[in-house]
Structures are given as structure tokens and as C-alpha cells.
């Protein structure tokens, strides 16, 4: 038998090695390190930006599969995953895209569900997916926010910059200092009032002690038989006289019980009793009518208020004096006068050579008037009527138990000038004292726009009665 040459042996060895290598490559490519033996499930995402084929599928940080395919279906990204056969996915599992670190690779993270709902079979779909965070959109929004911040900073620089801005800031600081001093004086007065109250309580305690001493002295005098009560206790004759008087009273009572005398007839005769009952019923109805009238009167409330506003841009002060009438809790009427440094605006049409010229003037000596009607709906109140001698509307929002009020007003609607818009807030710092701040005529094109702050004082009719009753009369 002819022997096989070395060259033939080497060729046969290389051929067998290539066959084995090809088979192993085919097996590895087909099963993907054993994962091809699993089952396929799909999940649909709005975006899978950064997710690649063969990415990990994990549950609680443990790899349970790989991404098999990524395709577009009905405008969404459909991700096909091959899951290890030893892992069963519940029907209510939740899939989401996550990243290793900040700039790492993305992978699919699955949150386990409830076994009672059953499991997903081969070719099934994960219904619940979480929307992934889009880094590009986040950066774009951050860029927009940065632009807005730069715009606000530029606006503040224009407003606060220059000599006018410095003057306004100095005025604000000075006004704040004066307000702080006034508040300190109010607190000092309150401390004095508390001190006076404590002294009054101490004096009352002394008087009570004196009263107890006097009562003790009276008790001792009674025990000694002094005075009327002492004689009543110690004097036998006086006691016997009282016994006789009690017996007489008993006889009179017996006669009344027998129906004798005027009082007896009054009590025991039916006609008399009926007449009295009718009279009592009439009196009862009258009292009910009086009570209804009194209850309505008590529901009727009146408020008197004053508010002062300092216009920081024009260095002027604006004052309001108002009377608010509430016939019931959800309805109110407001009447008042306004002292505006600009006065009342008047428009005159001047005709010269056939051409009409409209002249706008302000009568500084004229007062402005308010007359409004309002309706309150829980924390929201709507108003309408006359605002500073012009027609307008307003809305108020109350918060924190009516200690904070946010107000927006629109009035003086004119085709040739912008509507007068005003927004401000009132915050209660004491029982009758409110801090106010806002912006007046903030879309004016005639230079009337100005921020303001100030103080308002409001009293109810019962407070006014108390204050008036406390004033000493000559």
C-alpha cells in the first residue's frame, strides 16, 4: 500500500481544520454565545437614539438577553430582543432605555412585573415602555433657558443702569429704611401696650385679693351675729317671724292652686289661658321678625380702607379712599375717590382749517372716582364698573386665608391709547395693615408705566365702632 506523503497529510489537516472552523463560526453566528437558544420579544419606543444591535438586555443589572434587531414600524422604533430561555417575562414588565454612566453605551433595562398576570410567549410584545430622556432636547431647552436668562439680565441692566437706575435704587433703599423704622416704632408701641396690659392684670389681681379679704371679714361678722345676716342666724325672734311669713305665703299659694282670687282665675280658667297663649304667640312672631331683621343686619358688613402707593419711576404718590359694602359674603359694592398726581385725563378735538387735532390733557386738580360691583366665587372675585372715572373690569385671587390678595385691573379702554393695565399684590402683616406692591399702567406708551409699593389700612364697621367708643368725649 502506497504511503501518504507529508504534503497530503498537511493538506488533509488544513482541510479538516477549515471545516471545523467554519462549523464553529456558523454555530457562534447563529446562536450568539448561547443567546440564540432563547425566545424573541418586541418593544416599541418613540426613540432609540444611541441603541445598537447586540446591546445588552438586563434585569436588576444582570444580563438576560441581547438586542436582535431594530426596525421602524408605524413611525416608532421596534426593538426585537432575544431573551434567555431560563428567564420568563411577566406580561406587565416595563422596558426602558438606560445608559452606562453619562456618555456610555445604551442598553435595555426591564423592570419585573407580577407573576399572577401570566408570562410573555415567543413573539410576544412588552406593552409598557418608558419614554427615554432625549439629551439633545434637554440641551436645546437649556440653551433656551440660558437665552431667556441673558434677556432678563440685559433688561435689568437697562433698567438699573445709569444715573436714573442708581437714583431709583437709592430711593427704594431709603423708602425701605423708613418703612423699617416705622415698623420698629409700631413694635415698640405694641411692647408698651403689652406692658400696660400686664400692669392692669396685676392691679386686677390685687383688687381680687382685696375682695377675698372683705368676704372673709363679712363671714366672720355673720358668725359673730353682727349685721342683718348675723341677726338672722343668731336672733331666734327674727327667725320665728320669718317662719310666720313663710306660712302666710304657703296659704296664698294654696288659694291660687284652688283657683281663688285673680291670680287663681288667671291660671286655671281656660278662656284666660287661651287669651294669654294667643298673646304669647303674637309676641313670639314679633320676636322672630325682629331676630330675622337683626340677623340680616349682622350679615351686612362695611369696610373702610385707605391705600397709599409710591410710584418709583415718577417719584409721585397715589392715594385711594374706599368704602366696601357687603350685603352678603359673595356680593360686594365698592365706592371711593382716587387722588392721582396726573389728575383726570381729558381729550379735546381741535378743528383748525378743516383739520381735526386731538389734544390729550390732564386736569391735576380733579379727583377720580370708583364705583364697582363684585361677585366672589370661593377664592376668586370678579369686579366691574367705574375705575378711576373710566369703565373697567378687575379680578382678585385670595390665598392663605385671605391674607394674600393678587389683583389685576383693566380700564380706560381707548382706541388711540393703550388700555390702562394694573397688577399688584396685598399682603396682611398686621390685623388692619397690609403691604402692597405692583406695577401701574405697565403697557403705557406715554411714559406713565411705573412700579410701586406702599401701605394700606382697612377697618370693618365693628372696628370703627370700637375705635369711636374708645375715643374720650369732651
What is the helix fraction of residues, given as a range?
40-55%
By secondary-structure content and strand pairing, the structural class works out as alpha+beta
| Beta strand % | 25-35%
Overall morphology? extended
What is the chain-wise order of helices and strands? Answer: HEEEEEEEEHHHHHHEEEEEEEEEEEEH
Number of helices: 8
Taking the sheet with the most strands, its summary is: 10 strands, antiparallel, barrel
- CATH-assigned fold name of the domain at 300-470: Lipocalin
CATH class of the domain at 300-470: Mainly Beta
Assign the CATH architecture of the domain at 300-470: Beta Barrel
Mean pLDDT: 80
- What is the terminal separation in angstroms? 153 Å
Radius of gyration: 47 Å
> For the largest beta sheet, what order do the strands appear in spatially?
9-10-11-14-15-16-17-18-19-20
Number of DSSP strands? Answer: 20
Which spans of ≥5 residues are poorly predicted at pLDDT below 50? 28-35
Chain-wise SSE layout:
Layout: H1 6-31, E1 39-45, E2 56-59, E3 62-73, E4 76-83, E5 94-99, E6 106-111, E7 124-126, E8 128-129, H2 135-160, H3 162-223, H4 227-234, H5 236-257, H6 261-268, H7 270-299, E9 301-311, E10 316-328, E11 331-339, E12 344-352, E13 355-363, E14 368-377, E15 380-387, E16 390-399, E17 404-411, E18 420-428, E19 433-440, E20 450-460, H8 461-470
Parallel strand pairs: 1-7, 2-6, 5-8
Antiparallel strand pairs: 1-4, 2-3, 3-4, 5-6, 9-10, 9-20, 10-11, 11-14, 12-13, 14-15, 15-16, 16-17, 17-18, 18-19, 19-20
Task: Explain the overall architecture.
The protein has 474 residues and is an alpha+beta fold. Among the domains are: 32-133; 300-470, Lipocalin (Beta Barrel). The protein has eight helices and 20 strands. A hairpin with a 2-residue loop joins strand 10 and strand 11.
